[in-house]
Amino acid sequence: DGGITQSPKYLFRKEGQNVTLSCEQNLNHDAMYWYRQDPGQGLRLIYYSQIVNDFQKGDIAEGYSVSREKKESFPLTVTSAQKNPTAFYLCASIGIRSGANVLTFGAGSRLTVL
Amino acid sequence: GDSVTQMEGPVTLSEEAFLTINCTYTATGYPSLFWYVQYPGEGLQLLLKATKADDKGSNKGFEATYRKETTSFHLEKGSVQVSDSAVYFCTSTSGTYKYIFGTGTRLKVLA
User: Fold this and answer.
1) Edge-to-edge strands of the sheet including B62-65?
2) Interface size between A and B, measured as CB pairs under 8 A
3) Assign residue B51 a region: left if phi > 0, alpha if psi is -120 to 50, beta otherwise?
4) Which residues contact A98 (CB under 8 A, 6 or more apart)?
5) How far is B22 from chain A (nearest CA, A)?
6) Which residue of A has its CA nearest to B34?
7) Most confident by average pLDDT, A12-16, A34-38, A81-85
8) What average pLDDT does the segment A59-71 reach?
């Protein structure tokens, strides 16, 4: 079955460490997104990418970095510059060329800073 | 800029009660509208969508009608079940690949 796989599901980080969250999709989707979810808040956009080797900052990009070297993969690095990284991170994708506009989400990764 | 406002939760209902979760939007054009559902510890799943005025999206007994005159997309279900307990997000997109999410409404259904 096609879908989006995020790993790890749970991750613990010490202060000052960088961590990378994986997002892989086998839907042949063009665009991929990273969102951050905090309790009681909606989803906030961190980065998005519409094509390989190109990505744009979202509303809360500071302290995060991404790459898009392959269509299937869009990893997110949470750097030590992110002051409050404890959150639930969601990856999503959409097929631009299909004309559909429905976001498909992964199951999420929960990051906790110790 | 574009925005989505949905009713604060949590909403607590008894099984078989009628559900309404209000959602209004602001947009410069004519956005597509969605309701997504999130079960504990999981990602979001599409519940229903509507792409133009007067469209009605429906799925699993849930319905929402795209009302251009009131800029609303309220979610309704005639008889909720315990399994409907989740967080519901109203979402819009104006076709620029940017999606606007409401803050989410937590629904708790009691047996």
Assistant:
1) B19-21, B75-77, B62-65, B56-59
2) 54
3) alpha
4) none
5) 15
6) A102
7) A34-38
8) 96
